[in-house]
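Side project, low priority. Logging it here so it doesn't get lost.
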Amino acid sequence: MKNNLLRSRRITTFSFLTFLTLQLVAGFSAVAQESAENTTRETNNASIQEALDQLRRSNALPFPVPMMMQPPPYKEWVPNTVIEEFPAETRVAMLQNMAAANPWSLRQVFNFMTLKMKANEDLSFDDVIEAMDSQAVEQNLKRSGHNMVSKEVEAKTGKPTPRFEILQYCDALVARMVLDYSPEFSIFLPCRISVLEDASGDIWLMTLDWDVSWLSFVWHPDSQLDEELKDNGRRIRNAMVSIMEAGASGDW
């Protein structure tokens, strides 16, 4: 049974990788056609659409291909427009297949997504937060929230708990630019930095890593951000790093 399970996972993973390969081929083809006339683009779309239809009819994929994963039409998109939601069964099936092919533990996945810094040992928790807030002002980011999670835990349990607080920072104008591109990105806003004590009593600063350098390798024609938005994304990321460095060192 174990061999059958492994064989099933290999087949499922191969099918999923086959689908991703087709998407990559479609993407490179789309980029190559970017400067062509509209009629050529429509022909290209039709060819890719036919390939996806054949793949769907062959039942080679372990999940249905949703409409939003098909090649996008070559037309201007309307800013601040919510796009079609992924079907729940497709979302679950895709995540299951990616999980089967992923050698990392869930803790390692979270670690991969995180930018973190350890605060100097001579700094108190309040010193760290004060330095962060001061640097945020220097970076022209407004503090939009401060959640003292550990205090709420202590109030509800009546027991002490390691200190844990979340600070939120925002540039409203950049947020508006991002939401015009994708309203769905609102789930990540505002930018957050968590400050927490670990099991050893050390203070850590953590945030979601907003490194956008990988965007240089994005092929999808609908993923090409204008330079102003890219520049602002890099500026916000650098500002968040600067705030964390100030908190970790106590200097601002």
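Brief comment: The CA atoms of residues 84 and 147 lie 33 Å apart.
Revisit when time allows.
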